[in-house]
Amino acid sequence: MTKSTQDPDSQMDKQNSGVAAVDRALLILDAFDIDSPVLSLAEISRRTKLYKSTILRLLSSLERHGYVVRNEDGQFSLGITPLKLSRIYQNSFKLKDVLYPILERITKETGETSSFYILDNDKRVVLFRIEPARSVKVSISEGDTFPVNVGASGKILRAFSQTEVDENLQQVQNQFWASSFGERDPETSSLSVPVFSNGRQLQGALTISGPSERLTQEKIAENTSLLLECSIQVSKYLGGEISPLIELIR
């Protein structure tokens, strides 16, 4: 009796096809961002450069697993599953136990919003965040994503994750802090410092942000030492190199 065998090339084609489908599905999810939480089919197609028929097929699977939801008006938004994964990601870190008290201290002493950002390809993600009790504050939530090419935290994440940097990021590397005035939001200022683990491996960016009328250049200068102190505390806990940071606050 002759055994039937599957053509290896055919099997490989199926595997490659499956990988391509996953890549396209992730491309669709990446089309959503903080400024565009709800997208039409046409807009998803424009952003991903995929055919609408392909998008609809993949959206059906993503919707079935809770990654996206179809709204009553026919547009799409992210579902509950990404939030669940975000919570799992947060809870997988001992980082949370040491960072929240640090962020609370920063917010208490500065009266401004404190955050911890991580790098995700070409985006920066708010991993942890503490808001002040003040009525005027920067309203951003944990899990929000922003472009990495703007903002103080974006400068830190780029400066300490790239092997080759321009003159501006070289200055950030030398001084171990970065500031931003109205880059992402014209009415918001921010200050950010790096947090290291395992030597000089970048773990994330410790940041304060607030209204520009309140978080002025003078206030940023006043709070730089505080953020560097907090970075030393977290980096030491994570086994990061802290000697350059200590030198800056002596």
UniProtKB/TrEMBL annotation:
Keyword annotations: DNA-binding, Transcription, Transcription regulation
A biological-process GO annotation: negative regulation of DNA-templated transcription
Pfam families: HTH_IclR, IclR_C
GO MF annotation list: DNA binding; DNA-binding transcription factor activity
Domain IclR-ED: 81-240
InterPro entries linked: GAF-like_dom_sf (IPR029016), HTH_MetabolicPath_Reg (IPR050707), Tscrpt_reg_IclR_C (IPR014757), Tscrpt_reg_IclR_N (IPR005471), WH-like_DNA-bd_sf (IPR036388), WH_DNA-bd_sf (IPR036390)
Origin: domain of life: Bacteria
The keyword Nucleotidyltransferase belongs to this UniProt entry's keyword annotation: no
UniProt entry tagged with the keyword Transcription regulation: yes
Ranges of residues in domain HTH iclR-type: 19-80
Name this protein carries in UniProt: IclR family transcriptional regulator
Originating organism: Acinetobacter pittii (Acinetobacter genomosp. 3)
